[in-house]
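Obj.: predict assembly geometry.
Materials: sequence records (below).
Method: joint structure prediction, all chains together.
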Amino acid sequence: MRRPSAPTRSRCQRCCAVSDLVGLGARELARRVRARELSAREVTVGFLERIAARDGAIGAYLRVSPERALAEADRVDQTIARGDDAGPLAGVPVGVKDVIVTEGLETTAGSKILAGWVPPYQSTAVARLRAAGAIVLGKTNCDEFAMGSSNEHAPYLPCRNPWDLTRVPGGSSGGSAAAIAADLAALTLGTDTGGSIRQPAGFCGVVGLKPTYGRVSRWGAIAFASSLDQIGPMAASVGDAALALDVIAGLDPRDATSLDAAAPNLVAALDGGVRGLRIGLAREYHPAQLDGEIAAAVRAAAAALVSAGATLVDVSLPHTRYAGPAYYVIAPAEAASNLARYDGVRYGHRAAARDLDTLYARSRGEGFGAEVKRRVMIGNYVLRAGSYDAYYRKAQQVRALVRRDFDEAFTQCDALLAPIAPTAAFPIGSRANPVDLYLGDVFTLACNLAGLPGLAVPWGATATGLPIGVQLLGRPLDEATLCRAGVVLEHAQGPRRRPPEPA
Amino acid sequence: MLPRDEVIAIAHLARLALSDDELEALRGELSAILGHVAALAEVDTTGVEPMTHAMPVTLRLRDDVVEAPLPVEVALADAPAQRADAFEVPAVLRGE
Amino acid sequence: MTDWEPVIGLEVHVQLATATKAFSPSPVQFGAPPNTLTDPTVLALPGALPSFNRAALAAALRLGVATGSRIRTPCRFARKHYFYPDLPKGYQISQYDEPLCEDGAVEVWHAGAHTVVRLQRIHLEEDAGKLNHDGAWSRVDLNRAGVPLCEVVTAPDLRSADQAFAYMKALHRLVRWLGVCEGDLEKGHLRCDANVSVRPRGAPDFGTRVELKNINSFRFVKAAIEHEIARQIRLIESGGTVERQTRLWDGAAGVSEAMRSKEEIADYRYLPDPDLPPLVISDDELAAAKAALPELPAHRLERFMRDYQLAFDDADLLTGERGLADYLDAAVAALAEPTRARTLASWITTELLRELAGRPIEASPVAPAALAELIDTIEEGTISGKIGKDVLARMIASGDGARAIVARDGLRQISDQGALTTLAAEILAGNARQVAAYRAGNGKLLGFFVGALMKATAGRANPQLASDLMKKLLADPT
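Observations (raw structure tokens):
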């Protein structure tokens, strides 16, 4: 994998060390760039240097594109020099998960089957970020085709948790989470199909926001499970994530599943506080056998919200234990369908073959990793004529019941507070059995099935210093309530904890 | 445990070439996953409409207005094999 | 010997007349250089998504309403999965158990009788690209991939290859009539597969059916189906059984061949397309589509026969194009006497169509009302039919109306008994030998005399009168 050499430091009047930039956050960086206290180039150079220095050990990025990034930075600086508005994210360095298409910048979905593919078109989310002045630094690491919960299904490069390099960063947006945690970007885009933004956010101690399904266009999001996938921002603060979502959300005629809804206007809602807000605790998300530290973290977060004026309500989501089975029918079925296009004919890896069937089977057999093959096999199994009703249709019915549970709960509360995962980040290689990995998704999956928004916020740590996170789940289109509560939790936590810098 | 033949049939449906080891491993893994999802049968879903979309969206229509297509060089830019501006594949025999 | 009854159902793919593809805005264009009509969606690039063409829906709805189909709302798109190089996504977007239209019918005139062929369904789908074979390699051109189609599926109501052919023609006419499809067969705008089986006449159950594909021309429809019927009968009568299979028609060789298939029946693993929410047709849209329906060809044909006294063949010809039928109606409306419709119609089918020489009726140099005026002028006796043809030529050349030309050029028919009699007598007087020969029994010489009278009047003598007069004078020896 290409490791960029450190770019030459730009001539800068106010000698800005890389360490000054790090930790400012996206909004503050943008403010300083627009106010000409910093140039976009300085910011970009600073982050590129940091990536060059640190990412070798972490593997947050699959590829970095310094030349493009510097060219974009210069464009932003020129816009500002002209006196024009460079946008609310001017100069903000961004990492983009490799399942999100970036025009002109190699995109592989973290898979060997797309090695070397350079997209000829732009994803809507990235287009909107760029229009807002953000600078794309590179593509972040992820599980292949976003299928995984640990970033271990990553054929190019392992990704490690910046807090403890022997542990997973979470998945599938492991690289995006690690990049924020290690300050290798001020914002990243991830995708969340079954928890893939929220869980790595929790494991890496950063903020991750999964929008309501349909909030953000999926044009350019390499499809895993079409009815579940959503692109969302990851950042070091709720405010930064909120700004990013405000920028990327909105109706896109090219995505028939995108919603024609009012703009989320999250930044304006941030300081609304939680006075009078009813926070639900679902008993199925707080089982007796839940890890003590995790349970304690959620209790403490609940207490912080109560201190700020919220009330707690006990609710029940009785179909929670069927969310996993439903998900592991629906997601693989849609994945099997979406991955049929990777056949070695028009792009991507093609194996040597003298006949067509061999060409297909070998190209896909060689190009796809084990987890992807598992899901494609399961997907084809459940979609076979004769299996459809018992599996896919049944799962979609159970899905409706899962959603109904939430709708019912939201008549009694305004947002739910829950753990994100049953454990903190686990050691790399410790979960060999795929089904074990699947069981770790239990707290995140239902939200995707129901299409609801979810916000992961860091809260506390384990005794050994590993981050723990909590998640807030909300009504459709009500990211604002989640952000308000998230901000309260942030303030209660105090200054952001950062992983130790290496010696 | 899924019969080996069935796994082979699904692999063909999915156009996945699998080694014997992969086949055996998948056989076990698929069986385990199917065991995990079997719980769905316990749920009473009488009269429940399958949920296909998270929000009540209906299909928006696109106006029938031409947008410039991709230039042929771009369309073929990543073609693993091409000839005369077309994607090339081993001959398709009748009946395949 | 068993009396075998063929049972046939047709599945016709109709290419909808839209500017862009079904699910993306690349243009639809025949004969473009390969792979010049693609976009991320057509190429099935990672991350691309479909967006549905409003005009494709409108066309399908028109066809559904015109066939009296029940319109399903909402209807849904489904993914039909199989691997093939001309199918970029590895699935075709089609419709499965929730199609747009069900239980319609197409009216077909066949063997002089009006029949109704029931439709099981009409649904929307996208076309695949094209595969060109070249020795050990095949080449994929995706220009056609994504073009919008309606698949029209009949019930197994057809009972002969002839009837199947008549149905195809009727469907072809209908889709052009409605503007749903341009109907250019050279461009493959209508393609059909046939399901064929045979059973002893009177048997309650259907025989095993065979699917016939690759019938890539209208004229092959009859031949392919007849061949298959014969093949099945031969097979059964020699003790064999018909296998459920798919056979490919080879037009050049005039035979079909069973497809080699590794799987018995393809498992398409239908999945409601999660990228395309349910398609709703509002009551207003449906009402508007119904209100916008023109009078359909079969009805018009019947009306022409009934109200204009046209023979079936003429009515059929004149309802071949909506423009032609409209022309006839407009012209009849302008006639002074509606009973002249039949004559007017024959002038269209002979003189006007010959003049147009293959150009569409919209290019007619003579407006409907102008033609009506010409017919009136003839039928009321002002000019003869023969002069009428001359007048028509002058109308086309000058753009003037029939009456104006007749007056200006003095083409009025001469029907004055007295004047004609005088001329006739002169002719007889000047041709004594022929008179004698006629009276001796050579009746064919009448033509000579009538011809002479026509010539003497520069063609303007009323031909019937001229003939009657000559006959009378020749018969009277005094």
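Conclusions so far: Chain B is about 35% helix and 10% strand.
To do: check interface contacts against the pulldown list.
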